[in-house]
Amino acid sequence: MPWIVSVVGLKGGVGKSTLSLTLATTLHAAGYKVLIADCDPQGTAKAWAARAAELERDGPAVVSLDGRQLRRDLDGLTSGIDLVVIDTPPRLGPDARAAMMVADLVLLPTTPGAADLWALQETLTAVAEVQALKELKAVVVVNRADRTTLSRMTRDAVAELGFPVLPAELAVRVAFGEAILAGSGVVQHAPGSPAAKEAQALTKAVLEALGDKHGKRKK
Question: pLDDT of 66-80, one tens digit each?
Fold first, then answer.
């Protein structure tokens, strides 16, 4: 069975789709067989896949799925897959809860700012409800970080919530958006760039959170 990583958050605009695509394309570049399940009605991952096909870019497969039937639909799609990344809608409805129920790891992106922190607290409550039903790892990922006091205060506030924080984050970098527009991943689009190095560090941290410290699932 593949690992399943769900990217979940109550608030829109925290970069769930960017995080999902960055993780999936970095894993793909490293030799993992990855499937992206796009459960977000905005369809960012699906649009990215169409752009990649148009430009003949190599990348992970993307499928659009109804989150309410996620477990059943994934059963028929994951043969030969090492890891599934699920991009969820910007709300904590049935789709997001279903994505958490099938996940081995939930990533909870947040960006610097009070509104995102307040939304994160509500998201953590929903995660705790799922953890009461099943064993589930969940970690906060700081996204669009910078060197401002606000970013530092946000990291401190997340730590005070007593919830695990991934020891890698993505900064505010144009390269992430450029890579998506190019139907690519940042490690392919801008190899060696600060953004690519952040993507690789984040991917390594995710694999370690899953228990794959030495690339055991890599084909």
Answer: 877 788 888 888 889
